Every structure is written in structure tokens, then in C-alpha cells.
Amino acid sequence: MASNTGIAADLPSGARICTTIPDILYLPELVFGGLVWILVACTLVVPPNPLGWVMFVSVFCFVMTFIWTVVFACGSHHNKASWATADFLYHGIAAFFYLSASVALTIVTLDLKKKEGETKNYKFDVSAVVFSYVATLLYFFHTILSAVRWKSF
């Protein structure tokens, strides 16, 4: 059943996750999160601590989003209201984590720009920063749309 906002009032299963809002955002979240993961893994930066957080966030969100997608695709979510709540909470936490990781990655990248001869790592980090903010926006939009769906239960 669809509401007047275009957001599915129930939780989809199977191939419907590729056609309903906000579940259609799973694939771009996986793609951009994977790109952040790959690009950060390709760089070597002297202060590894902020990049450790970025790697944790990107790997954690990639794995959890993949598991979440499989659960929805297999139709393993029986108590719809609880799963809608969990979907909203997970994407809210992921958006917050990605925002903090994006800010940390931006700071490291700006510090890297000041060093001479680091053009390859700098270009990788700039790309990672862009993809990280895109992933943040995707998770944020998914959070808002999940909240709308959660309130419809």
C-alpha cells in the first residue's frame, strides 16, 4: 500500500526494494560507501588515527547496509513496525557516523594539501571526501524517508 507521499507504507521485500522509496537508496549507499573505503585504503597519510575512523565507518556501514539489503530482499522482516524503527535508527546512526568521518577526512585532506609532493594521495583523498559527503547525504535522505515511513505504521 502506498501513501500519498510516494513512500511505501509497508516494508518491501524481494525485488520491490529496487523500486520503493527509500529502499532504492541502498544501492547508491553501497556504491559510494565502497568508493570511500577503496580510496581511503589507497592513501598513506601520516596521522592514521582519523583515517582509522573513516575506514571503520565506511566498512561498518558498507557491511551493515549490505546485510540490511539482504534482510529486506529475502523478506525476513516479519514485525513490520519494529523493522521500520530499526531502519530509521540505523540510517540515522550511519548518517551521523558518515558526517563525523567526512569532517575528519576533510581535515586530514586539507593538512595533506600543505605538504609538497603528495599529489597522488591528495587526489585520492579529495575524491574520498567528495564520495564521503555524497554517502552522508544519501544516508541522511534515507533517514528522513525512513522516519516518514516509520510514522505511517
Description:
It is a single chain. The chain contains four helices and no strands. With 153 residues, the chain is mainly α. The protein has one domain. It is a multi-pass membrane protein.
What structural class is derived from the secondary structure elements? mainly alpha
Low-confidence stretches: 1-5
Order of helices and strands: HHHH
Count every helix, treating DSSP H or I runs of 4 or more residues as helices.
4
Strand content: under 5%
The pLDDT mean sits at 82
The dominant shape is elongated
Helical content class: over 70%
Membrane topology: Multi-pass membrane protein
Organism: Amphilophus citrinellus
Domain MARVEL: 17-151
Keywords: Membrane, Transmembrane, Transmembrane helix
Provide a quick synopsis of the model.
By secondary structure, the protein is mostly helical.
Topology (SSEs and partners):
Elements: H1 26-41, H2 48-74, H3 80-114, H4 119-151
Helix pairs in contact: 1-2, 1-4, 2-3, 3-4
List the keywords.
elongated; 153 residues; 73% helix; mainly alpha; disordered N terminus
